[in-house]
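Materials and Methods. Structural model of DUF72 domain-containing protein. The 268-residue sequence of DUF72 domain-containing protein from Falsochrobactrum tianjinense was retrieved and submitted for structure prediction as follows.
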Amino acid sequence: MSDKKTGNRLIGIGGWAYEPWDKSFYPEKLSKKRQLEYASGKLASIEVNSTYYGPQKPQTFARWRDETPDGFVFSLKAPRFSTNRRVLAEAGEGIERFMTGGLMELKDKLGVINWQFMATKKFDPDDFEAFLKLLPKSIEGRAVRHAVEVRHESFGSPEFIALLREHEVAMVIAGDSKFPQFADMTASFAYLRIMGTKESEPLGYSDKQLDQWAGCVRSISAGDAPEGLKTVTPPVSDNVARDVYLYVISGYKAHNPHAAMALIDRLK
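The predicted structure was written out as tokens:
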């Protein structure tokens, strides 16, 4: 048996309040107030989408922290007002307001901040470098992890990959989606969003697809180059034990929790 070190594998879904899950995922008659408690007992992480649209109160983050078990983490989508702008270098005030607005109440349950860009946003080297410099590496003495979700072909540039590596920011890897896939490893952790669940598959994905994604997570967490993913620069095995955050998003959402749990089972 290999004694190769691996990072944590944090598999989850987007959000926890979705009406079809009341029947397909949550136990009958479970109070909505206990849905987060239940979901966090079945999954390792949740990506929060509501933070993309508006701020949350510090006490809300604290409540989420207290309702979830040790080892569980939340990743947060950063506010759209910071990314949906023509000049990214002018986002500093909004970034600071978000980063100091109470999210550190999550403490060690803060996973990654996902900075998602519109599909029409093109790569401007100088402006994007200025944006990356605005992202704080720590808040209140706690290290903060950042990932960028870019969705335009112009980001398929070695210059962009080099910028992310310089600033220790992860590339969000889009799986089974209409968006371009850039699976280069640019940080000491990886962030994947897979979006291809189907109604016809009880677990969202076929067994073969689940095995493939589990294998991908296993490889990345061990610092190996995963097979089947598209990269901008030649993939390498760097032997870095990476934490891997993978979220089952979009697709046929009613099945997403089952897909995530199936991946967790395969990675035990």
